[in-house]
Each structure stands twice: as C-alpha cells, then as structure tokens.
Amino acid sequence: VRSRGALVALLLLLMLAETLLESFAASWTAYAFEVRGMSARDASLALVLFWVGMAASRFSVAALPARWTVRPLMAASAAGVLASAACLVALPWLPGRLAAVFLLGLLLGPLWPVIVVTASSTFRSDALTSAVIGMGAAGYALGPLAGSLALRLGLARQLFGAHLLLACLVGLCFVAFRL
Questions:
Q1: Is the CB of residue 102 less than 8 Å from the CB of residue 45?
Q2: Cβ(16)–Cβ(139) under 8 Å?
Q3: With 0-12 CB in 10 A as exposed, 13-18 as middle and 19+ as buried, what is 135?
Q4: List of residues 6+ apart from 136 with CB closer than 8 A
Q5: How far apart are CA 128 and CA 33, in angstroms?
Q6: Which are the contacts of 114, defined by CB distance < 8 A and separation ≥ 6?
C-alpha cells in the first residue's frame, strides 16, 4: 500500500469484512445446516466446530514467531477462508461440510488479532487502532443483520453462498492490502 491513508482504509475494510463473516458464521451456520435438511444435532455440531476452530487459532497465534504473524499468516488465513467457504457451498456431504466449517473458524481466527497488531505497530496511534477495533464492532453487528436480510429476501437455502460471498470480501481486502 502506497500511502498511510490507503493502509488505514484497507485495515478498516479488512476488519469490517473479517468480523462480518465471523459474526455471520456464528449467527447463521447452524441454521444454514438445518435448512439443508441436516438434523439439529448436526447443525449444533457444526457451530461447535466453528468455535473450536476459532478458539484453537486465536490461542495458537500468540505462540507463533513474530515473522509469521503478519503477512504470511494473513495470506494463509485469507486463502484458507476462501477455500473453506467454497467447500461449504460445493460439498454435498455432511462430513465435508463439517470439516469446512471447522476450517473456516480455524483460518478466520487469526485475522482479528493480526489486523489489530498490524494497526497498532504500523500507526503507533491509539486513535487509529481504536478505529480499527471499532470497525470490528460494526462488523459484528452487521453479521446477524445480513442473515436476517437474506431470510427476508427468501434466500435461506443460499446462506452457505453468503458465507462464500463474505469470504470473497475478506480475500479481496487482503489482495488490496498486499498492493
């Protein structure tokens, strides 16, 4: 990124995209599994797997060497989020979808802390770091709202597609961040 202003904008957008996808997945994954005809037990298992993946990656990211925590980790996470969301859409069988939702949580998990650390270390400004964190709060609020809107539009069976669409937003933000 060529300017400080562009980097601020991209980190804000990346944080919004990451938290929007995270809260959307947390709010609507179980429902998306049930709409596809899976049992309430399997739908609950999917949500548990998402959170286990998130927790595992958030705890483990702190143990990684500093050289792994910014661009390489962001690149791997963004690519993995796209791949796992695509698997949610494409795989017709339950074990594959359960694995995909676990991987979605596992690969989405590191992005929030890495975005915050990047903002803090790059700008050395509490105000800009707070703005990035605040954008994350906005994304968390929008995830449940996006799912509700999809339902109002009659798109309940396309909720896995919405996971993919939001994952694409995360990927595009990362690509822009790399330029």
A1: no
A2: yes
A3: buried
A4: 15, 16, 18, 19, 112, 115
A5: 38
A6: 61, 69, 70, 73, 74, 77
What's the token pair of residue 149?
Answer: 């809107």
pTM, two decimal places: 0.86
**Over the range 20-34, which residues count as b (16 or more CB within 10 Å of their CB) and which as e?**
bbbbbbbbbbbebbb
Closest CA to 132 of 150, 115, 148: 115
Contact 141, 24 (CB under 8 A): no
Q: How confident is the model at residue 69 (pLDDT cuts 50, 70, 90)?
A: low
pLDDT(81) > 60: yes
